[in-house]
UniProtKB/TrEMBL annotation:
Coiled coil: none annotated. The keyword Nucleotide-binding applies. Residues 49-187 form the AAA+ ATPase domain. Gene3D superfamilies: P-loop containing nucleotide triphosphate hydrolases (3.40.50.300). The keyword DNA-binding does not apply. Keywords: ATP-binding, Chaperone, GTP-binding, Hydrolase, Nucleotide-binding. It comes from the Archaea. GO terms for molecular function: ATP binding; GTP binding; hydrolase activity. This is ATP-binding cassette domain-containing protein. It comes from Caldiarchaeum subterraneum. Transmembrane segments: none annotated.
Length: 331
């Protein structure tokens, strides 16, 4: 795409044209380097201009249903425009993805022009986010969406990227999410600012709530924010108002305490790591596609495996340098 055409497309997206926003996000998902470099160099204040909320939890916790109800409540309370970026798992066999998360939001959000919803495939990224999600959130910020929700893929304790790339971090659990042993495990459970026990009309939600609250009391909270534990029944819209209020309270806390700026630094580190990891993976696949015999050589017992690994590292490094030098020179 010519630079003038790309600039026009971005100009229309900034004005709020949904088709232009969607087209740009599709280009980013497909790895379009020109749009990637343009956005990297031209989106200003993308970390401070919008408020990003990470939403994670196990499959079946009701994240999407709750999110649909929550977005409506937040629009009522604060107005503005809200973006929702949801991530669905990718098939290891076909490489495809069934974008099911947004289906659960349709009834609540259809026809609301102040809301933009986009689904992503997790691909093979570790942690549940692809680089496209990061830049989609920046693009929405540029288009005037003052709040952006990122819903994780639902990969349990490894579903950390939506949390690391957000100002406020939310975990959605159920009354069957486990005992105190699960609660104290590292990963998602130690990162969140707000815990929600959804589907509270099942099992024993108040037992899980008390267990989680006890766990949180035992932890050191260096930023002085003690995460609240709330119960909801999303399908009946019970407790959703309290969740909306808790999220806005945490936003105010971040702004008043200066923690907002520290979170932004965490977000930048997460983004840069994933950009680098993505480039390495793509370069590795490209190099190995050109050197298919290396696998057979590596399997032979009489081959120097260290030398083969060194050869691959050098080849992948050259591929990364070639890509970036050429791409940057052309933009």
């Amino acid at each position: 795409m010519a630079s003038a055409e790309l600039e026009k497309l971005i100009s229309e997206a900034v004005k709020g044209d949904r088709k232009s926003i969607s087209r740009l996000i599709t280009m980013l998902e497909r790895g379009d380097k020109q749009s990637f470099h343009y956005l990297v160099n031209n989106i200003k204040d993308s970390y401070t201009a919008s408020y990003i909320v990470g939403f994670v939890g196990p499959p079946g916790a009701g994240k999407s249903t709750l999110l649909g109800k929550l977005v409506k409540k937040l629009l009522e309370k604060q107005g503005g425009k809200i973006g929702v970026l949801t991530v669905d798992p990718t098939s290891l066999l076909s490489g495809g993805s069934f974008m099911g998360n947004r289906i659960r939001m349709v009834e609540d959000l259809k026809g609301i022009n102040q809301v933009y919803v986009r689904s992503f495939s997790a691909g093979h990224s570790l942690g549940g986010l692809t680089v496209g999600v990061y830049f989609a959130s920046k693009l929405l910020t540029l288009a005037g969406y003052n709040t952006v929700f990122i819903e994780g893929v639902g990969a349990g304790h490894l579903d950390v990227k939506p949390l690391l790339y957000s100002h406020t971090r939310v975990a959605v659990l159920t009354p069957t999410s486990g005992d105190i042993i699960q609660m104290v495990k590292a990963g998602v459970m130690e990162l969140c600012d707000l815990y929600i026990i959804n589907r509270a009309d099942e099992g024993n939600p108040f037992f899980v709530k008390s267990q989680l609250e006890e766990t949180l009391r035992l932890r050191i909270h260096p930023d002085k924010w003690v995460p609240p534990v709330l119960t909801t029944i999303a399908t009946a819209e019970k407790g959703v108002q309290e969740v909306a209020e808790a999220i806005l309270q945490h936003k105010k806390y971040l702004e008043d305490s200066g923690e907002y700026c520290r979170r932004i630094k965490d977000m930048v580190v997460t983004e840069l790591k994933d950009i680098f990891t993505t480039e390495v993976n793509e370069a590795f696949e490209s190099f190995m596609e050109k050197n298919k015999t290396l696998i057979d050589k590596y399997l032979k017992n009489d081959e120097n495996k260290t030398a083969i690994i060194s050869y691959i590292v050098e080849g992948v490094t050259e591929e990364i340098v070639r890509r970036w030098v050429v791409d940057v020179a052309e933009t």
